[in-house]
Every structure is written in structure tokens, then in C-alpha cells.
Amino acid sequence: MKAWKKTSPELVAAFDKALPASAGVTRRPMFGYASAFVNGNMFAGTFQDAIVVRLAERDRAELLKVKGAAPFEPMGRPMKEYVVVPASIVATPKALGAWIDRGHRFALALPAKSAAKTRPTTKSVAKRTTGKQATAKKRAAKKTTTRR
Predict the structure, then answer these.
(1) How far apart are CA 100 and CA 81, in angstroms?
(2) Of 5, 36, 93, 118, which residue is least crowded by CB atoms under 10 Å?
(3) What is the number of other CB atoms lying within 10 angstroms of the CB of residue 39?
(4) 68: closest CA among 86, 48, 92, 88?
């Protein structure tokens, strides 16, 4: 598999400037690329030398009519709802901001995602033993085998 290239600092700066100034918007990396989220849902991001935006069906159809726009296919399979923003729009901060705003509005309408659970399940906790518990079990096993 071909290695992905890093997004240029200039493109990341253009992306950052275009993000809505909404309190609920968070910017964090997704697969090492700058991405924007609201309510746990990604709505825009960078990927190599492109900016992608997640859009409602009507907005996707409209953007895909613009020369240079394309479905976002990072690994050969399209990511549903995501479109690569054409360079002509990326070069115009106001236009880029307008498309990212559309993505933001679309993501606001999606159900909020809850934070990922970091605690292990009950099953895996039950299987774990501390070093002291393991040592105690070994000693108990030795005692029962030496008594026979």
C-alpha cells in the first residue's frame, strides 16, 4: 500500500480559517489529518493535498457538479456523504467557509455520538489478575499438589 503524504501547512491553515466559530466545534486529528467535529460527528477534514466535507444529499449533488469535486475515496472505496472540495473553492476562503458551514449544519442534524468507552468490559476485568493474585494462585496450586 502506498504511503499517504502529509497535508501542507498552508492547506491546514486554510482549513482552520474556514472552520465555523461555533462553541461546539472541535478540531482534532483523524488518521493523522486535521479534522473538524461537532457532537462527535466529523463534518470536514484534510486528507493529503485535499479538503473534504461531509454533506447532505442535496449539497453533495450540488458540489459534485463543480469541476474538480469528487467523491472522497481514500482507500478506493467512497466514504458515504464526503466530497473532495475542488481546488477552485479551496483557493477562495469565503467559498470554502460556506461549504464547510454546510457540512457543519449537516453534522448538527445527526445524532450525537457518545464518547468512546475506555473501561474494559466486565468479562475482560474478570479474566485479569494482578501479580499478587497470580502468585497466590500458584502457591495454592503447589500446596494442593504437594499434599497428595
Answers:
(1) 13
(2) 118
(3) 16
(4) 86
> Cβ–Cβ contacts within 10 Å for residue 133, how many?
10
Closest CA to 82 of 105, 101, 63: 63
Domain 9-108 fold: Aspartate Aminotransferase, domain 1 (3.90.1150)
Among 41, 96, 97, 52, residue whose Cα is nearest residue 74: 52
The pTM for the full model equals 0.73
Number of H helices, E strands in the chain: 6, 6
Grid cell at residue 90: 479551496
DSSP 4: P
